Amino acid sequence: MAITVKASLGKTKYYTEVTAGENKIITDEPLDKGGQNKGFNPMEILATSLASCTAATLRMYIERKEWDVENINVEVELENYPLTKRAIFKRDITFDGVLDTEQMKRLHTIADACPIHKILTNDIEILTKFS
């Protein structure tokens, strides 16, 4: 299933409106990079994709198992190393609830099964066309 998003950037430096269907978000760059800091920057959006997908995937599994977990907290730190063409995502997951060792082990496997995690750990190809 393909998804389509559209980013539109006018003359206001880096203030970009991104739409997907009826939903819209704003992205921008921080002040020190010439933006107005009115939205997430693109790297934050990338990290957000992993964090939110992980949380949703875990919630679906936890609900199916009927485990008593009030909150799922996913923190993602993204470090990019352009010179070595390497990026490192550090994902820290905590739960407000009582889970035993076996449940935690299973949830680790489920976190790695989130669709965004799978995309980021697979081969990625970007095809660009100008029209």
Write the layout of secondary structure elements.
Blueprint: E1 6-9, E2 16-20, E3 23-27, H1 42-65, E4 69-81, E5 86-97, H2 101-112, H3 115-121
Antiparallel strand pairs: 1-2, 2-3, 4-5
Helix pairs in contact: 1-2
Can you put this structure into words, describing what you see?
The structure is a single chain. The protein has 131 residues and is an alpha+beta fold. The protein has 2 domains: 1-40, no CATH class; 42-121, K homology (KH) domain (GMP Synthetase, Chain A, domain 3, 2-Layer Sandwich). Helices cover 33% and strands 30% of the residues. It has helices spanning 42-65, 101-112, 115-121; strands spanning 6-9, 16-20, 23-27, 69-81, 86-97. The strands form 2 sheets. A 3-stranded antiparallel sheet has the order 1-2-3, with no helix packed on it. It has a two-stranded antiparallel ribbon with strand order 4-5. A hairpin with a 4-residue loop joins β4 and β5 (86-97). The radius of gyration is 18 Å and the shape is elongated.
What descriptive keywords fit this protein?
alpha+beta; 3-stranded antiparallel sheet; 30% strand; OsmC/Ohrsf
Going by CATH, the homologous superfamily of the largest domain would be K homology (KH) domain
Structural class: alpha+beta
- Globally, the shape reads elongated
Question: Structurally, how many domains make up the residues?
Answer: 2
Helix content: 25-40%
Parts with pLDDT < 50 across at least 5 consecutive residues: none
Secondary-structure element string: EEEHEEHH
CATH topology of the largest domain: GMP Synthetase, Chain A, domain 3
What is the terminal-to-terminal distance?
A: 23 Å
**Mean pLDDT across all residues, rounded?**
96
Organism: Chryseobacterium ureilyticum
InterPro entries: KH_dom-like_a/b, OsmC/Ohr_fam, OsmC/Ohrsf
Protein name: Putative redox protein
Pfam families: OsmC
